[in-house]
Amino acid sequence: MSARSVARLAILVAVATVLQIAESSIPKPLPWLRLGLANGVTLLAIVRIGARGALVVTVTRVLLGGLAFGSLGGPSFLLSAAGSAAAWAVMASAWRIFAPPLSVLGVSVLGAAAHVAGQLAALAFAFELGRGVLALAPWLTATAVPLGLITGAVIRAVHARLPPW
Amino acid sequence: MSGPFSPRGIWAAMTAADRVTSLAVLALSGVLALGVRAPERPARAVVMSGRDVVATLPLDRDATLPVQGRLGEVVITVQGGAVRVSESSCPQRICIAMGERRRPGEMLACVPNAVLVRLVGDAEPGEETPDAVL
């Protein structure tokens, strides 16, 4: 690994971790509603350095976020990990297979939906909350579209303004 | 409002495939809403008078049940998937004013008559919906 790619990874990890921490500190009208900018960095990493680098960024960000909040290994950490892993898997596949015609915006929507699905799956199976938690699924899936689009628009703008690496 | 982050700006930047994908996810949420709404098994109304269970009425079948309470008769009616107290011998008729109940964990009570209607489902009342998601 060249010094250049180490530096790129480090920058993306730093940005993603800061966004994750910052986002959690913003008061939200509903506890589960989040813009998902940290997930957006996963998308930015997929677009700029490829799926494998993006996985490194995502895993490191989730671990550092867990350390920062002291939730490492706890329930909210597992939820974050499940959602982020699902989002990475879906966005990396979608970017590879469907882009184009899909743009960053569409991939971001899919990533937001996958994040929701991953968290719900973790809640339903790992925490054995079962059917009750699925009552949230329609709302979470619906909000994933506007939130994914906003995140996607931000990432699109950042990608366009960053010089080629 | 315009600009790259306004709804119009985002819509303009989306490719046809992006739009189809977004609509598909919205459609999925609609399908989920319909799917989640339907319970596996209808809730049941457990009717109690004093300490005794008088009857258990499934909410998917309309029924009318007169129950002997402490003061007199209380009529429990199941209609359209909901249960209510339709007639009561109590003085204030608060039980009738409570209206109808349809979800597990909910209750109706005629206190003067010591008649209680408790809705139960597959899950325990506390499990029906999450209290919080982290």
Characterize the structure shown.
The complex is a heterodimer of chains A (165) and B (134). Chain A is mainly alpha-helical and 165 residues long. Chain A has seven helices and no strands. Chain B has 134 residues and is α+β, with helices and mostly antiparallel strands. The model of chain B is unreliable at 124-128 (pLDDT under 50). The interface between A and B is medium-sized, with 40 and 30 residues.
Question: How is the secondary structure organized here?
Answer:
The complex is a heterodimer of chains A (165) and B (134).
Chain A: H1 3-25, H2 37-49, H3 51-69, H4 75-98, H5 104-126, H6 131-134, H7 137-161
Helix pairs in contact in A: 1-2, 1-3, 2-3, 2-4, 2-5, 2-7, 3-4, 4-5, 5-7
Chain B: H1 7-13, H2 16-37, E1 44-49, E2 52-58, E3 63-68, E4 73-79, E5 82-88, H3 94-97, E6 100-101, E7 107-110, E8 115-120
Antiparallel strand pairs in B: 1-2, 1-8, 3-4, 4-5, 5-6, 7-8
Most strands sheet of chain A: none
Stretches of chain B where pLDDT is under 50 for at least 5 consecutive residues are 124-128
Indicate the mean pLDDT of chain A.
Answer: 86
**How many helices of chain B in DSSP terms?**
3
Number of strands of chain A: 0
Secondary-structure content class of chain A: mainly alpha
What class would the helix/strand composition of chain B place it in? alpha+beta
| Radius of gyration of chain B (Å) | 23 Å
pLDDT under 50 segments of chain A (min length 5)? none
Distance between the termini of chain B: 34 Å
